[in-house]
Amino acid sequence: MSLVQKRALITGASSGIGRATAIAFAKAGIDIALVSRQKDRLESVAKEARNLGVEAKAFPLDLAKVEQVHTQIDSIVAAFGSVNILVNNAGMGYTGDLIETSLADWQKVIDLNLTSVFQCIKGVLPGMRDQGSGTIINVVSIAGLQVFPNWGAYCVSKFGLMALSKTLNIEERANGIRVTALCPGSVNTPIWDSETVKADFDRSAMLTPEIVAESILYVALLPTSAVIEELTLMPSVGKF
To answer: What protein family is recorded (predicted)?
Structure first.
């Protein structure tokens, strides 16, 4: 592990994979800046992390307001200090035939799942370049590698995120910045309870947020001389 103190910014950190990643990072001694819309839940996660002995701060932010994200991430980095790990985890699920998907819904999915990630990256990238190092982990999805009926808008957003990850990896390699696209299969998170998702899957057969978080931590702690460019993580039972 590098002797430089690791400091991470995690989006979607109030629940699910984001929360599990925050706790896994805290147990590993990584300071964390936590981003989510849910202020109370976010502060609860930050408090739990602080009890594990790391610096942890909550920064409530609605990433769906994409025109503000770049500036607000800039402000968060300025307030928290240098960030050498970015975990882009925030996102939304959406089901429905493409022909029935409204333009407003389509744009909402693209904005949160893809454009907000682009904006978060732009907020931390200059600092990582100045440091000459950094790790960006984009939580994509198996839906960034294969398509599923009734998940059209979601799949398009995730295929776009995969392309963003691959392009960024090539562009920033010379600057010492590593980019990983993590593609988990189904994970038992609150996304399945959201109003925009209509699906009836066996959640007991899904990955847990903690398993995904351990994979994210593993990627983050790799020696700087190595990078996992793409990691597909699937449940050992069930379909996807």
So the answer is: Belongs to the short-chain dehydrogenases/reductases (SDR) family.
